[in-house]
Amino acid sequence: MLPRVAAEGLRCYTVPMNFRNINTWFHAAQDGSVEAVHSRFEAAWKALSAELGRTWPQHIGGKDVTGHVAHAEKFTPFDGRILVGRFPVGTREEALAAVAAAKAALPAWRATAWQERAALLDRTADVMTRRHAELSAVMTAENGKSRFEAGIDVDEAIDFCRSYAEQMRAHNGFITRMGSPFPGEMNETRFVPFGVFAVIAPFNFPIAITAGMTVGALVTGNTVVLKPTQDTPLCGEMVYQCLKEAGVPDGVLNVVHGSGSVVGQAMVDSPDVDGFVFTGSVGVGLGILHAAQQHMAKPVIAEMGGKNPIIVTAKADLDKAAEGVFNAAFGFSGQKCSACSRLYVHESVADALIERILARVKAVVIGHPAERATWMGPIINAKAVKTFVEAVALAKKDGGRVLCGGERVLEGALEHGNFVQPTIVDGLPASHELFRRELFVPFVAVNRFQTLEEAVARANDVEFGLTAGIFTEDAGERERFFNNIEAGVTYCNRRRGGSTGAVVDAQTFTGWKNSGTTGRGAGGRNYLQQFMREQSRTIVTD
Ligand code: NAP
Ligand code: MG
């Protein structure tokens, strides 16, 4: 009998895993070492500032490939005058050369004992832990995460490495003795790698998700071609450096920069890529899912967008709800795939809740992401600013009331960056497109409801099903929500993030409907199996 978890409302059992989350900021707060974490970040920021503007290579077959004719210049999102670096514009030929290198490295890597592959992840986690402040600083420069959010992102990468290594051990390398229905017959099942995996990564968790997808493919015996997004190429480079330092063999991990439509598409079209792991928007993800099948049925592990609702009922604790909605909506400027962008609130508590949320919004410090006091930094690029401006204009045109925000922030030095205000819009009809389309900016649409059933129905009435939250002190309401909401990651009464803040090996992260293709979550205990196919082996001994 396995031990029972005593959490109220959860009826689950534990599987033994020797794993602990790193939780850098949380543990520092507990043991009084927060100042030391700040100092390390500040030293790393200073060191990085002197390094910005370099020209970087890409990596094929263990070689640093330089000498490109074309480079893309990546500027910081908080100041468009500051160059992060110059990155090669990878070509279709280079993408295919990287695929060939990954294919050549496959036989040896596939034959490497799973214990050794798991040990590579342990060492990668050690390297990332040592370089935590440096990786955080790179991320702050490149995608504008505050030092707190950047630290959490790096933590997640470390957690992915350690938990996936531990899962290989907990599952004995996914080699299982099966039944023997006939005398003299020995049966086992093995999970074996597909082959070459293309890893296509997003900007918003540029170290965590990039590393998580990459090490998931590697630890299970696949070789990889990684394409980071053009919005965060240096974070992709950092993930490569950490794995390289930890001893990943030549050709097992290759990195090609460049656009999705050239480098990404070349891999999608290649008969030599055996599987895809993608995190990004729904349009791109579904495009890859369909196009990848042109030569052969291939796995496409895709985690895609969201339009995540939080429901606040008449039985909610409104302080908890206001904090949870605020954190979920505006943390990392609304650019988490789990961000709350729809608020459904019972009509009897709507005004009181909104008042509490507005009080929090008023106190938000928007500014340079490396500064300690900053809570909200910039959004990623000019295209995102355009999305924000157009959404506000559309809301106004269709009769929405802008309760807060709605404008760009152009004061002082911020005029050189992509800064916008946290924005809440009330009064649009529940069927309006601003309740349906993912914007990926700090923009929340509010709708008032009368019954929980009505709220859940509206929450479900979209193509997405990533995360969802409820605030209620009523156990019956909570159960009705959990049992009827169409979302892969669900929360009740979570102040730290009413729909956000999943942690490795705690909340398995998967999207339902058009938010994901597999129904198995990253950071969960059923994730790694997706990078392998089963082979049943029968040996007759009589
Ligand atoms: P994105 O614009 O869809 O890009 C993701 C990646 O796909 C980038 O590397 C991009 O390259 C590449 N790409 C674009 N076109 C391609 C093509 N035709 N073939 C192959 N690859 C192609 O996503 P993003 O803006 O970086 O990230 C935000 C999105 O990710 C949001 O929708 C968010 O909800 C989602 N997300 C989901 C999760 C989850 O777990 N469900 C987690 C994080 C983020 P370039 O950009 O370099 O062209
Ligand atoms: Mg994008």
Concise overview:
The protein is an alpha/beta fold. It is built from 15 helices and 22 strands. The model is unreliable at 1-7 (pLDDT under 50).
Global Rg: 23 Å
The appropriate CATH architecture of the largest domain is 3-Layer(aba) Sandwich
Strand order of the largest sheet: 15-16-17-14-13-19-20
> What is the domain tally?
2
What is the terminal separation in angstroms?
36 Å
Query: Any ligands, ions or cofactors bound here, and which?
Result: NADP nicotinamide-adenine-dinucleotide phosphate, magnesium ion
As a percent range, the share of helical residues equals: 25-40%
Which band does the percent of strand residues land in?
Answer: 15-25%
Mean pLDDT: 96
Shape summary: globular
Number of helices: 15
Count every beta strand, where a strand is a DSSP E run of 2 or more residues: 22
Task: Extract low-pLDDT stretches.
Answer: 1-7
Q: Quickly give the structural class.
A: alpha/beta
Outline the biggest β-sheet.
7 strands, mixed
Question: Can you identify the CATH superfamily of the largest domain?
Answer: Aldehyde Dehydrogenase, Chain A, domain 1
* The top level CATH class name of the largest domain: Alpha Beta
CATH fold group of the largest domain: Aldehyde Dehydrogenase, Chain A, domain 1
